[in-house]
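Class, study these two lines:
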Amino acid sequence: METTNGTSFNNQKFTISAVNDVEQQTSMELGEKDDFNYSKRSQWLRAAVLGANDGLISTASLMMGVGAVKKDIKAMILTGFAGLVAGACSMAIGEFVSVYSQLDIELAQIKRDKQRGVNRETEEEKEGEKESLPNPLQAAAASALSFSVGAMVPLLAASFIREYKVRLGVVIGAVTLALMVFGWLGAVLGKAPTVRSSVRVLVGGWLAMAITFGLTKLIGSSGL
């Protein structure tokens, strides 16, 4: 009787241990899946923030450069709009070509693996592999959109202010605030120090606008 009870107790311990192991393994797999999904999302978000930052700095610098030699609001707005369109198209085309090249490389590698007989995956794994392949159109649209969002900040800031000096001040203030926000977002998504990253982005944006303004003013005043 004691032997039977001991055997039953050991079987119960083994069953509980096996159940715990299965639950632990399942939770680890779910955790890894969540980490992977979060990593992919954070990469996309960080790329979007960087694209918006590019649109903000380049468009604001263009507008400040033209504003250094022309006080007309129309010239400033048209310059910013042209910078938005040209920059968004450039970002989209560059991203499309880059991602398409990456897609060609990955498809060629998959083809080589199939020819060697290495690819013995299940249907679910094949579907997941197809979904993980980069999408050139999606990447191009995301780059153009993020650049346009950043470029809209100085455009909107300058659109309704006729007074020249006030308009320049408002553009600088709006760009400064947006640079701090984009720097903070980039740091959070990249898990970097937020204050240092925000200051670095802010100083870089100020330098770009100051250099563009100063050089354009110098060339404009020289009569070239």
Remarks:
- The radius of gyration is 28 Å.
- Residues 2-38 have pLDDT under 50 and may be disordered.
- DSSP finds six helices and no strands in the chain.
- Helices lie at 2-67, 73-116, 123-132, 136-158, 164-190, 194-221.
